[in-house]
Each structure stands twice: as C-alpha cells, then as structure tokens.
Amino acid sequence: MKRLFFIIISCVLLWGCSEDYLNRYPLDEISSVDFWKTTKDLELYINQFYPSAFPISGSDRLQLVFASDLSTDDVVPVEADARLRGSRVVPATGGWNYTEIRNVNYFLENYEKVEEPFESYKHFVGEAYFFRAFFYFSNLKAYGDLPWIDQTLNSDSPELYGRRIPRNEIVDLIVSDLDQSIALMTAGISHDRTRLNKEIALLFKSRICLYEGTWEKYHQGTPFGVANAEPEKFLRLAVEAAEELMNLETYSVYTPGEEDKAYFFFGETDYSSHPEVLLWKKYDLALSLGHSRQFQIARGNGGGIGLTKSLIDSYLCNDGRPIILSDGSINPLYNGDGNLISVAENRDPRLQQTIFLPGAPLQVVGGDTTRFTRPTVDNPAHTKNTTGYQVSKTLNYDPVHHNTSETLAVGYSGWIIMRYAEALLNFAEAKAELNTITQDDLNKSVNLLKKRVGMPPLILANITQDPNWLFPELPPVINEIRRERRIELVLEGFRWDDIARWAAAEQLIIGKRPLGAKFNATDYPDLSVTDFRLTNGYFDEYRDILPSGFGFDPARDYLNPISTEELVLNPSLTQNPGW
C-alpha cells in the first residue's frame, strides 16, 4: 500500500497543473491507516489519473507528437503504418490495460470512508466515474468486446476468467458511469481549465455515443457488426449530450476577428481564459515540466511526417465551393497546386494556418522575423518532410520555446486536450446521421466554425455537389460535415477513430498510396526532380515499398488482436475477427 502512494505522488508531480492542484501530503505522513479521511485524500488519489489518461508527449519528434494521426489518410510518416499496411501479427504478450480501471475501482470501494460531508467531495467521485469510462473507452476502441470489471479482484477471483461482453453493452455501462460523472461533478470553469468538470463529461459522452452509434450503423453486415444494434439510440444520446453542453453556454467558439489568424491558437502558453478550451495541459519550467515539442516545428524541420494531397484537396475555396465543381470544371478561384503559394490562394484560411508556406514566420523576436523557406523534403530520417506539405499547426513564434537540442525541454507552450469545436461537430454529425438536421442546427454548430475564419455558411438546401466527395453514396450534408470535421480537427487525434467508426478503410485506405505536393523547381531551386520518389510529379514516399498501396484487411484490421498470453490465461476469451 505504501508503494501505491509513492506512485500517486509521482503522478501528481508529473501532471503539475497548479499549486492547489499539487497540494499533497509529505511522503512520510501517508499510510493506509490515515488515508481515506479527507477530501484532500480523494483529490490526491484522483490526480494520478490525469497523466495516465492524457499522456502528452514531451518529445520533439512530430511522429510522436502527432502519433495518433499516423494511421490515417491525412499524414505520411517516414515508416508506413503497420495497421494500414496490414502487416500486424498477433502479439505474444500485452494488450488491453486494466491497471487504471482497477485503481479507479479501488477508489470507488473506499471513498465512503471519508469523514466529511458527501457534498464536499462528490466532485472527485464524479471524476473517478469519468476516468473509469475513459479507460474502458480506450480499450473498447482497440478491442471491441471486453470483460467488464467494476471491483478490485484478487488472484483467485473468478471474474479474472470471465467472458468478453458485447461492445454495445460495454458502451451502456460506460454511459452509465458518465451519467454518474455528469450528476456529481461541478459545472463551470475551475483550476484554470486544467481539471475535469460536468461540461467535459458531457463532451466525452457525446464523443463516445457518436462513435458507437456510427460504428453500429456502418459496420452492419461485416465481421464487426453488432447483434441487436441500436445505432439510433446512441446517436440520440450524442445529440442530447452535445446540446446540453451547448445550452450551458460555459464555452464558445474563439473568434478573435482576424480570419487569417483565428485558427492559429494551438501553440499558446496559457489557455486559462480561452473561451473554447475545456481542458488543457499546462507546462511549468519551475516544476521541471517542459517539453521539446517546438524543436523541429519551429526550426522548419519536417519531423518525419507530411500531410497528404487528399487532405489538402479537401479544403474548399473561399467561396464555399470545392476545387472541382459538379460539372467537372475547375473552380475559377482555385489556382492549382503547381506550387505551395498557389495551392493555398483563395482557399479556406485554415489551410495556411495548418501548413507552412514560403515566407511564413518561424520565429519572431521584436521586429526581427525568421521565415520559412521550403519544406525539408531532403532532410534525413526524423527531420524530413515526407510530402512537401509541412505542418505548422501548434507553432509558437517565441524562440524561448525553440530547443537547441532534442533533449533540452525548455518549451512551455500548452497542449489542448478538449475543445468546444468538437461538441459542435459531434452534434451536427449525429443530427445528420439521424436525418433530423435543420438549417438552425447547422447555424449553431458547423457554421460557427466556418464563420470564425470567414468561410461561407453551409446551406442545407443549397449544397454544392463535389465530384470528389469521399463518400458519394451518402447524403451531401454528411459529406460536408465529415469534411468540416477533417479540416477543423486535423492533427488532433480524431481521424483514425473517424475512419474506424465509419468503416471507411475501403474508401480511404485499401489499395491507396498517399501522395503529397507537386514537385516544383521554383520551390526547390537547389534540388533536382531525380532526387525524390515521385508519381506523376507528386511526392510519393511509399512508391517503392507499397507498389500496390496499403494492404489493410477490412475483415481484420479495424480492431487489435488479443495477445496469445491473454488467450492462454483465460480460455473464456475469444479472438477478434480475422486474427
């Protein structure tokens, strides 16, 4: 037990959000005898789950900073993703993680020992229910059906040998935990937006219910289909949770008024008063909590990744229409992709606030500005840009954050974990999937995000047909909401989840090889076309290693395999489809 508390203290130090957040007992004063006495004890225990749930990388390497986006059609890492290649195998050991679930269960079995009024500590009980839901959802996305354990177990507990419960039943239990969390946690902003509240639980509930509702809808008739599926039930719950959050009006879309800068807020140092941020990770060098995330991005290095042509082509022109019109003609506003400047001209302003263009600032010190010249497509290894479209999102111009080495963690720009824009997108998508969306729904959701950057609103009765819609078999409004989600949330860790729940690998991944920008000699005056792997003039990082494109298996690769060790230890477990 004493070792447990040392672990908890270490986790509190690692998260380190604020002084009163870090309030803790001296190590030599904590024991199992005098714990579970006060509200502070509960807060101390709960603090351990923040770094577990939100492990923000301090690494400089963009392959790690944006790791959750590598298994998608948005990003090309130097090494092709194993899931997309279809090259994964059943692991011998490892797999789902119940460690933190057990720790939450331990809290829920002991918190009633506290000798203070329930009202004084019920918020932390709500946090516990939130974290149990969070950790179960992480397992569910990876493995589908799961054993459900809501108590601490001993080595001889029969529950250790229980079966996997169907995923929809698991989601019902997760939603029940979140409903407890919503009822118990305090509403409103506290702890400089670095601690959970009721609104965050509502946002997370909308995320989970949208995920399950669309998974059940689009995986029907596949090996991942759900018996007795009720997609509409979960979609309605997603709408209700998002709308309740919206109606509370605690948060709002950040609208600074400068459309060409309105989206460029992902590298700031302080989000304590940012109207759109529900939860963020605060760094503090005084507590030895820094990062080296800016080392590559602020030095103009590619970070071993690049954005895809498919993503860039999805940005609308600033008249609200696609680059190719319904009759197959080119939008007159689109200046082509012959060079990096032209590709961003007359486009959704979020494009030039997501990728570097020649002449864009890298560092600003007083009146002295260091500017980006060209993508580092010729750099080695993890400093290379793979596609010619180089990431600028999360950049902070101040060189105080710009490390002089990979290991020197001097950056303290914050990291947004949850923001209000997701709630608006969840609401709109769930309404569209239910076929109940109205113009008023669009106006209070996705059109607020478009308005922020000066883009025309989405008009339900007048959606411009796009011959390059990724999902032409679906209604136009669903295609446009999916487009908006892709653009607004790019590099924020949502794209693989979206591909998985839409069962969209057939359209987006299988047999495809992602291209990048067009090679143009004016962009690279010091380089030759023969120096790179190109296809029809476009950067093609995987040309030689994936001549037939990605080998993703839609009957297998949407879920992870259960490890051999788990199957041997518990004969009641079944393997996932295709493995």
Description:
With 579 residues, this protein is mainly alpha-helical. Helices cover 35% and strands 4% of the residues. The chain has helices at residues 2-15, 39-47, 49-53, 62-65, 82-85, 99-110, 118-143, 167-184, 198-218, 231-248, 294-297, 309-314, 340-344, 420-433, 439-443, 446-452, 476-488, 495-501, 505-508, 564-569; strands at residues 277-281, 361-365, 368-371, 415-419, 534-535, 538-539. The strands form 3 sheets. The chain has a two-stranded antiparallel ribbon. β5 (534-535) and β6 (538-539) form a beta hairpin. The longest helix is centred in the N-terminal third of the chain and has 26 residues, at 118-143.
Give keywords.
579 residues; two-stranded antiparallel sheet; single chain; cell outer membrane; two-stranded antiparallel ribbon; disordered N terminus; mainly alpha
List the helices and strands and how they pair.
Blueprint lengths: L1 H14 L23 H9 L1 H5 L8 H4 L16 H4 L13 H12 L7 H26 L23 H18 L13 H21 L12 H18 L28 E5 L12 H4 L11 H6 L25 H5 L16 E5 L2 E4 L43 E5 H14 L5 H5 L2 H7 L23 H13 L6 H7 L3 H4 L25 E2 L2 E2 L24 H6 L10
Antiparallel strand pairs: 1-4, 2-3, 5-6
Helix pairs in contact: 1-2, 2-7, 6-7, 7-8, 8-9, 9-10, 9-14, 9-18, 10-14, 14-17
User: N-to-C SSE series?
Assistant: HHHHHHHHHHEHHHEEEHHHHHHEEH
- Main sheet specs: 2 strands, antiparallel
Strand content: under 5%
The rough form would be described as globular
Low-confidence stretches: 1-30
Intertermini distance: 39 Å
Number of strands: 6
The structure class reads mainly alpha
Residues in helix, %: 25-40%
Biggest sheet: strands side by side, in what order? 1-4
The helix count comes to 20
Over the alpha carbons, how many angstroms does the gyration radius reach?
24 Å
Calculate the mean pLDDT score and round it. 91
GO cellular component, one term: cell outer membrane
Organism: Parapedobacter indicus
Keywords: Cell outer membrane, Membrane, Signal
Family: Belongs to the SusD family.
